[in-house]
Every structure is written in structure tokens, then in C-alpha cells.
Amino acid sequence: MPRPSNKPRILEAATDLFSRKGFRATTVRDIAEAAGMVSAGLYAHIATKEDLLVEIVREAAEEFEQALAPLVALPLEPPEKLRQAVRAHLEVVTQSPARARIFLDEWQALSPPRRESVQRWRERYEAHWAAILQEGAEQGAFLVEDLALARVFVLSCLNAVNRWYRPDGRLGVEEVADRYATWLLRVLAGPVDKTNHPR
Amino acid sequence: MPRPSNKPRILEAATDLFSRKGFRATTVRDIAEAAGMVSAGLYAHIATKEDLLVEIVREAAEEFEQALAPLVALPLEPPEKLRQAVRAHLEVVTQSPARARIFLDEWQALSPPRRESVQRWRERYEAHWAAILQEGAEQGAFLVEDLALARVFVLSCLNAVNRWYRPDGRLGVEEVADRYATWLLRVLAGPVDKTNHPR
DNA sequence: CCTACCGATCGGTAGG
DNA sequence: CCTACCGATCGGTAGG
Asked: Is the dihedral of CA B107, B111, B112, B113 positive or negative?
């Protein structure tokens, strides 16, 4: 009978600590204690503290990827696709807040060789958003002038939710997603000129 | 004749290092070297490394405050006031990027007693934005349903510019400010219902 | 602002 | 996964 490894406990402890205190401010002794062992015991499961951070970032990247990728291929009207993408992203951001925070911010503590692979994961995820916006622009549903800037704008708003959202707060994630989607669709709908003046 | 103190050099070095590497990853030896002295020499000017961070956050808070406060009292139409506020905020964010980053993020490395005064500076600044939005709502120019959420939304987008803006990039800060202001005004203009269907 | 230094703590290893 | 430990580095001080 294989008894359960404690690796998941270590990852869980590190995720919580890295997200709350930051990678540099977290010691291997902190992690070991939270996982119920002494610091030397960690090294039966990991090679370095930095590997732990990479592994958490990878988990988080997969979580974002799996939330969004299926949606991108769906045959939806662009506004509805955007609305569902906003909801999917915010669900990850609010329901795995520690992992999400590490994917969004704390990966920057990695040293250059490992940063680059993380950067590729991030670019791959952002490419899904580019595709959603591109599709909306091609179909004439999104009239925004600068798609690259619009993508940055959209993801800025959404990612920041990770910093302020609290599960016991005034708004649930569905409410935030609905309002944010509505607002972002106003941005993407393009200039509204009720008087039909030429611009 | 009072010769010029090296305190400004220390602050400048610490601002650069804290913003690039983070507070925890920056050593007092790093700062001293960048300021042209040995680490013990720092302590002729400061009491602790943390004091240095507090001082930088205070400088940054003042810079944001001085950019926005005069504007808030001006007799401008709400959309124009918002546009000018966006520009003022983004100018600080892009022209003092290191200081701004410390005001926006790195202050969280402070331990609880000092964090609280920083939090008050931040709340004071955010109150100006609340006032701008409130005024627009009262005058009927901004029709957004949830002013508190709108303020978070607006500041999220604007603050994130600090993370991606590069002086040698495709867009200058004026262009980013103009487009962002346009987009945010679409959000704040409220629902546009060209067909006059009831909602 | 420098030389010299300190106690604490860091990430990680040896050996079982 | 533990006991025992290591070299490096940390923020900061003494004394001038």
C-alpha cells in the first residue's frame, strides 16, 4: 500500500506562504513547519526552494489555461464569449487566490533562467485573450482601435481583483464578473455616436 | 558652508533597488554600494532599512497627492476632470516609475505598525478619486451603478500601467492617457440604449 | 563615514 | 524524514 506522499502538503504550505509573505521573506523553515516536518525533511521532496516556486507557478498556469482554453474554441457571439471569459478568469483569481497571486506577481522572484519558461506560460495564456478580442474585432462586434492595448487594459482590471477581493466581502465573484464584463463590453463596443456626427 | 548631504543619494539608490529587486531581496550592502559608501556608513543617515522604505513611500505619496489634489478642486465638467486626473496619475506612474511602484506594491513589505500610516496615505489619495467620481455621479455625467467598485476598476487599470509602460515603447504616456480616459469615460457614461428598450 | 565585528538566520548537505 | 551541522550572508553596532 503506497502511503500518501507529503509533497502536496509542502506545495500547499509554500503556496500560502509565498502568496502572503512573498518568496524571499518565506524561509524553508517556515514551509517545513507548516507542512509538519523539519527543514531538512523538505529536501527529500524538492531540490531547491526556487523549484517549489516554479512548480506552483506551473500549477497556476494550468489552472488558468484549463479555465479559459475550452471557452475560446466555443461558437459564441463575441460579447457572450468575453463575458464568459471574464467569469472564468475571475473564478480562478478569487477561488485560488494564493496560487493566482503567485502566477500574477510572485513569479518575478525567480532568477533569469526559470523566469523565461514562466514568461512563456504567461504569454500563452494572454494569447487566448488576444484571440477573443481579435475575433470580436473581425466580426465587427468590438470596435476598439488598439487591440494590444485593449488586452492589457482588460487583463489589468481583471488581475487586480486578486488584490482586493474577499470571499466575505460585499460582492460575490459572479456579481463582480457581471459588472466588470458589462463595463469592459462598453469599452470594446467602441465609440457611440448617437447624433451620427462624423468623427 | 554646509556641504551637500549624501542622504538624497541613499534614497535614490534605495528607490531604484527596492523597485527592481524588492525590499527583502535588497541588502543594506547593495544600497550602500550604489550610494558610494560601505554599509555601516548608511547608519549615519538612517536608523533602519525599514525607515528607508517608509521615507520613499512618503515621498511617493506626496508626489501622487500633489499631482491630483489641485485638480480635484477645479471647476471642470466631470468628463474633463476625469481625463485630466487620468493624465496626472499616469504621468507620476510613468515618470517616477520606481517610486510609484514602491507606493503601489512594495509598501506591503513593511511590518504592521508602519503599514498602517502608509495605508492612511493611500486612502487619502483614493479619496480624491472617490470625490471625482461622486461629483460626476451627482451631476448626472456618470451613470455607473456602483461607485466604490468603479473607483477600484479605474485605479486598477491606471496602476497597472506602472508594470508594463516603457519610455521607449510604442505609445507615449499622453497617448496611453488619452485612450484610457476615453475608455474609462465609456464605462462611466453608463448604459447606452439606442433602441430605448426597457432594461 | 570608515574599520572591524557580532549574533542571528539563511538555504542546503551529510549521514543515517 | 530526522539529527546535526556548515559556510555565507544578513541587519546592525562599537568606536573612532
From this structure: negative
Q: What are the grid coordinates assigned to A19, written together?
A: 502568496
For residue B151, what is its C-alpha cell? 473607483
pLDDT at B196 over 90: no
Q: How many angstroms away from the CA of B176 is the closest CA of chain A? A: 8
Which residues 5-44 of B interface with strand C at a CB distance below 7 A? Answer: 5-6, 32, 36-41, 43-44
On the 0-12 / 13-18 / 19+ scale of CB atoms within 10 A, A199 is exposed
- Residue-wise pLDDT tens digits, A9-41: 999 999 999 999 999 999 999 999 999 999 999
| A126 vs A121: CA distance, rounded Å | 9
State whether A194 and B189 contact (CB < 8 Å): no
The domains found in chain B, sorted by start residue, are 1-46 (1.10.10.60), 53-188 (1.10.357.10)
> For residue A43, which nucleotide's C1' is closest to its Cα?
C12
Shortest CA distance to A57 belongs to which of A17, A13, A115, A112? Answer: A115
Q: Does residue A2 have a pLDDT over 90?
A: no
Helix (H, G, I), strand (E, B) or coil at A73: coil
Backbone angles phi, psi at B39, to 5 degrees: -60, -40
